[in-house]
Write a structure and sequence with these properties.
Elements: E1 9-13, H1 18-29, E2 33-37, H2 51-62, E3 66-70, H3 77-88, E4 93-96, H4 108-133, E5 136-141, H5 144-148, H6 154-174, E6 179-186, H7 199-204, H8 211-218, E7 228-232, E8 235-239, H9 258-263, H10 265-268, H11 280-297, H12 313-316, E9 324-328, H13 330-339, H14 350-353, H15 368-376, E10 391-404, E11 408-419, E12 422-434, H16 471-475, H17 488-493, H18 503-519, H19 537-543, H20 549-571, E13 573-581, E14 584-593, E15 599-602, E16 611-616, H21 617-624, H22 630-635, E17 639-643, H23 652-655
Parallel strand pairs: 1-2, 1-4, 2-3, 4-5, 5-6, 6-7, 13-16
Antiparallel strand pairs: 7-8, 9-10, 10-11, 11-12, 13-14, 14-15, 16-17
Organism: Sparus aurata
Protein name: Peroxisomal multifunctional enzyme type 2
Pathway: Lipid metabolism; fatty acid beta-oxidation
Length: about 650
């Protein structure tokens, strides 16, 4: 299906010739209304004439297209945008393309005014219009000189790289308004290159070989945002930043010296297993890792992104962590039960919440709390005021194995908890250390406790539960003091919109439901459990079989009941779902967020749904868990959409917060 720009308005600056002209013609050919902006300057940037823009407009109109000319400087951004509004009533895409030849006679300010300030002025003038219509596509044009530098072009290179920084920030700020901004670095024959390149090379670098990339990036189907692309001669490549793993060259309370930098220089500059940094949070994370290690260990690991990198597998296996003692009373047991969602609203929970209950017990999964203390040297035993009438547990932790997963290392840690000589509980933790892989170790271990494979039948029980807004704040009182779970600013540095729930809290939620459903809340009947603690997906896998999507639709139903009127106001659409398995339709669902207070029911919609989505049960779960990008699923054929495809973007309102799903 060909890409259409019917109903879209495109502003192309520098469109009187070269790549800009090709952009304008290509957009018009596919139905866009085009504003052709060009000062009509000569190859050195001088002069002014309306002829260049007028000629392109005539070409477009002669082919039945829609176009108007504009002759203003890009520094008069409001005038350019007003031309689009007066002629076509809206503005959708902005393409910035304007280059100069060698400009030794032009000063720094002129180059920056035209390239960097001009782009800022035009984009600022269009920004609020794009926000109001909830759609915009912006293409900035940089160059290889800006990306890599070039002899004799200091002013031009600085301006062009400045455009990339501007585009990156616009991509971040515009995302929630469906305004995407990308940057292209084209190599194409033009008025400039034809004077310095042989004719056959200029012919192979025709602007026609650049325009298709720009059209795709501007289309409403394209979800690329914040990308940087080199393009020419029919070839397209995406660029990204890389950073070496680096080395920390100081220790706590010790000066940092240039000699330490010199001694680690080769490792600082070693790009083996380089990190692909995509945002400022990831950039800042290494420094945070260093500070954390300084505070907790006193001596910083050489590689802040690979905490285990300085210990080889052979050296680490069998090493014992220093024995620790964990003190607790019934208070800690009750606090943990509250932290994993138990409530006096459920009479069955009272035995875990009231120390005077005849069957007062501690949840079996409380065993992770003292074990965590062994790993992190934390726990409530260090908090003043909790040393009355306590029981003491001694913990012995041993590194069972270290596995090489390539991008990271997995440390298998065995923790045994004793009360005197009696073994109270045993935990095995798999700790994934990002960036610590590549040391040539084994990928699997016979020492890892394997989970029982899920049975091939429908779930024996389906349970839906909800965490409260303060769940993480309550759970952390059991000893996991990581500020990631309470401090918004710290969470933001980790790339999260808000503090996140502890994985072990989700684990506790899942385990207590298993205890209730299959052991009648009797801890003595609970032997062992192994599961991932990052998401509730572990619980789903533990139950096994059936359609996993049923659990998600049950959660969606709960959300609609809680927020129905608000969702109807935001979305105003009916979504039909066709869930398949082994290539056959096995379930249909309707999410009605257009009528009444909203609803969800199993089966097809009685009328015509605005959007119908067909996807397999497996791929549906991948999408809602954030493992599969829905746009990639669509273009790869894993997810099929009928109806108004743009409305499908509004599903984020009910599918967000993957951990809850």
């Amino acid at each position: 299906m060909s890409l259409s720009f019917e109903g879209k308005v495109v502003l192309v600056t520098g469109a009187g010739g070269g790549i800009g002209r090709e952009y304008a013609l290509a957009f018009a050919e596919r139905g866009a209304s085009v504003v052709v902006n060009d000062l009509g300057g000569n190859v050195k940037g001088g002069g002014k004439s309306s002829a260049a823009a007028d000629k392109v407009v005539e070409e477009i109109r002669a082919k039945g297209g829609k176009a108007v000319a504009n002759y203003d400087s890009v520094e008069d951004g409001e005038k350019l945008i007003q031309t689009a509004l007066d002629a076509f009533g809206r503005i959708g895409e902005i393409l910035r393309d304007r280059t100069f030849a060698r400009t030794s006679d032009l000063d720094w300010d002129l180059i920056h005014r035209v390239h960097l300030r001009g782009s800022f002025m035009v984009t600022r003038a269009a920004w609020n219009h794009m926000k109001k219509q909830k759609f915009g596509r912006i293409i900035m044009t940089t160059s290889a000189a800006g990306i890599y530098g070039n002899f004799g072009q200091a002013n031009y290179s600085a301006a062009k790289l400045g455009l990339l920084g501007l585009a990156n920030t616009l991509a971040i700020e515009g995302r929630k308004y469906n305004i995407f901004c990308n940057t292209v670095a084209p190599l194409a024959g033009s008025r400039l290159t034809e004077t310095i390149m042989p004719p056959d090379i200029v012919e192979s670098l025709k602007p026609e070989y650049v325009a298709p990339l720009v059209l795709w990036l501007c289309h409403e189907q394209c979800q690329e945002n914040g990308g940087l692309f080199e393009v020419g001669a029919g070839w397209i490549g995406k660029l990204r930043w890389e950073r070496s793993q680096g080395r920390t060259v100081r220790q706590k309370n010790q000066p940092m010296t240039p000699e330490a930098v010199r001694d680690q220089w080769d490792k600082i500059c070693d790009f083996t297993d380089a990190a692909k940094i995509t945002n400022i949070q990831e950039s800042f994370q290494s420094c945070m890792n260093v500070l954390s290690q300084l505070d907790s260990e006193g001596e910083v690991n050489a590689n802040p992104t690979a905490a285990a990198a300085s210990v080889t597998s052979a050296e680490a296996v069998g090493q014992k962590l220093p024995p620790t003692t964990f003190s607790f009373t019934h208070t800690q047991c009750i606090l943990y039960a509250l932290g994993v969602g138990m409530s006096t609203k459920d009479p069955d929970h009272l035995r875990f919440l009231y120390e005077g209950h005849q069957d007062f017990s501690c949840l079996p999964t409380f065993g992770v709390i003292p074990s965590q203390a062994a790993m992190m040297d934390g726990g409530l035993s260090s908090i003043p005021g909790l040393n009355i009438d306590f029981t003491q547990s001694n913990l012995n932790a041993t590194i069972a194995d270290v596995l090489d997963k390539g991008s990271g290392a997995v440390i298998l840690l065995d923790v045994n908890t004793y009360s005197g000589d009696e073994l109270v509980c045993y935990n095995q933790f798999s700790v994934f250390v990002v960036g610590a892989g590549g040391f040539g170790g084994r990928r699997t271990s016979e020492k890892a406790k394997a989970p029982v494979p899920p049975p091939k039948r429908a779930p024996d029980a389906v349970v839906i539960d909800s965490t409260t807004r303060d769940q993480a704040a309550l759970y952390r009182l059991s000893g996991d003091w990581n500020p990631l779970h309470i401090d918004p600013s710290f969470a933001a540095m980790g790339g999260f919109k808000a503090p996140i729930l502890h994985g072990l809290c989700s684990f506790g939620f899942a385990a207590r439901h298993v205890l209730k459903q299959f052991a009648d809340n009797d801890p003595s009947r609970f032997k062992a459990i192994k599961a991932s603690v990052t998401l509730f997906v572990a619980f789903i896998d533990f139950l096994g079989g059936g359609l996993q999507s049923e659990l998600v639709f049950a959660e969606i139903s709960r959300r609609i009941k809680d927020l129905g009127p608000e969702l109807v106001k935001k979305v105003n659409a009916v979504f039909g779902w066709e869930i398949t398995k082994d290539g056959k339709n096995v379930a249909e669902w309707t999410i009605d967020l257009k009528n009444g207070s909203g609803s969800l029911h199993q089966g097809p919609y009685s009328g015509k749904a605005d959007v119908t989505i067909t996807v397999s049960d497996e791929n549906f779960m991948e999408v809602v868990q954030g493992k599969l990008n829905p746009q990639k699923a669509f273009f790869s054929g894993k997810l099929k959409v009928r109806g108004n495809i743009m409305l499908s973007q509004k599903l984020e309102v009910i599918l967000k917060d993957h951990a809850r799903l």
